[in-house]
Structures are given as C-alpha cells and as structure tokens.
C-alpha cells in the first residue's frame, strides 16, 4: 500500500536529490574548494533549491493547468514574467546570505551573476515544468478518451431513456386528442411539433454534435407542447439571442433542465413562472433556466441519477470548458450552464 502511494513520486524525489547533491559531487573532484565550503554556502544552496521547487511545482500543479489552455493567454505569460523578475530579486537577496563575493554593480559580472544567470535557471525550471505538465496532460487526455469510449455505450443508453419522458408523451397525446375533438385550430400544429420532436430524437441526435439552431428548435417545440397542459395560465418564456452564433453542441444537453422546470414549476392551484434563456457569451453560450417552485419534492436539489448523468456528460464532453451552477432559494429553482465553444 505504502509502495503504491510513494511510487508516483520516486522520480521527483530522485531528481531533486541529485540536483541538490550535484554541487557537492563536483567539489569532490576539487578538494581545495571542498574545504572552503561553509554553512553560508549550505544555507544559500538549500534556499535556492527550495525556491526552485516552489517555482516548479507552482507551475506544474496550478499555473499551468489553470492558465496554459486559457483563452486569455496573456495572463499566463504575464505571471511567468512577473515570476522571473521576482525570482531575480529573491536570488539577489539569497546571494547576500552567502560568502561575500563583491561584484561591482553595472559590470558584466553583475549582469550575469544577478540577472541573466537567475533568469536562465528560472527559464529552465519553467520549461522542465511545462514539459512534465504537457506530458501529464497528454496522458490524462488519452485516459479520458479511453474512458469516454468505454462509457459511450452506457451513456447512449442512458440518453435514450432520458431523451423523452413517457409521461410527457402520454400527456401530449391526450392534449392532441382533446384539441382534435374540439376542432381546435392548433391541433394540426401540435401534431407537427410532436412529430418534429420524435424525428429529432430518432434521427438527429445520433451525431456527437448538432447545429445549435436544431437544438433550439427542439427545445422550443418541447416547451410549447408542455405549455399546452398548464392547468392555470401563467408565464412561460423561451428567450433566445437573435444573433446566436453558429455553434455545434452536444445534443440534448439542456432538455433535462427544461423537463425539471415543468416538473416542479406546475401545480393545479398556482400560476406558473418558467423562463428559459439562451444567449451568447464572449467565447460560447449561456443557458439559463428559472422556475417558481410549486411542486416540492425531496429530490429537487439533486434530481438523483438524472442530474448525475448530465454532470458526467458535461465532464466528458466539455472538460474545463463549462460551468454549471444550480441554486434553489427564495422559492425559485435556477440553473446556469455556460459552455466555451468553437464556431463552425
């Protein structure tokens, strides 16, 4: 057990140990210099190694993963530049801890000893950290791809189960029957909308991505059919930005939240308030769902397997490219899903 925990870190331990002992090994071949080593050199060398380790692992574990793939890459390079200048300053302070080696300010020796040298070691440290970070990221992406392939079949089966609620289909058919009996002018339009929903589910969502306009039309049809069964007239809106960009998105990402809004936002005594919004952001789209909670259930916050599935799909399809916020407060249930996307 202990061996398995330590194994991933053995390479790091050995590398830092060799780097730390390297000056002492070199001095073994120069006994005259070895005799001159004192506590000041030990203190300076140890402090330098600690600073290098902080730089290396700060970039490897936080700065790289957080900012390297960011759309605002200037932040990443600004931090690295600031770090380099800071390290040069720290290195100068560290040098004051060591043996006195007077270097005249402004000379070439001072330039190399206090500026170029530290920045060189800082750059090497960052490059080594970047190479290891990219190697780890590549390995992670390969593992993620394998995991996606393994889960694809199960995910597709779960999607098919969640694509359309039998309860919704039953109610819609009853509503259509009622409209036909009354010779309502909307009866034909309602049948068409239901057929479009079924066609979309059966034929369109087989691809990994669909045009966002098709997804919008599917949501619009679903919302309009759900609105037919409102026992009390209320506010049901689907607001779409008129200049929505031509993105491709994974199919049926939003339908679960729409279903929940109607599931918990309708009862037989109160006027519903259900609002959906889809709009552009700087680098993608933002989907908002808000409904007044009229039907209270214990599973409202988690929604059990349904919400777990949609969260898992988002993690697999949009790693580090989505944010999902769910709030249930002051009588309203709100969902905010933001996706970072590339235009077609």
Automatic annotation (TrEMBL):
The chain crosses the membrane at residues 9-29, 49-69, 76-95, 115-135. GO terms for molecular function: kinase activity. Gene3D superfamilies: Histidine kinase-like ATPase, C-terminal domain. It holds the Pfam family His_kinase. Residues 155-230 form the Signal transduction histidine kinase internal region domain. InterPro entries: Bact_2-comp_sensor_kinase (IPR050640), HATPase_C_sf (IPR036890), Sig_transdc_His_kin_internal (IPR010559). Keywords: Kinase, Membrane, Transferase, Transmembrane, Transmembrane helix. It comes from the Bacteria. PANTHER family: SENSOR HISTIDINE KINASE YPDA. This is Histidine kinase.
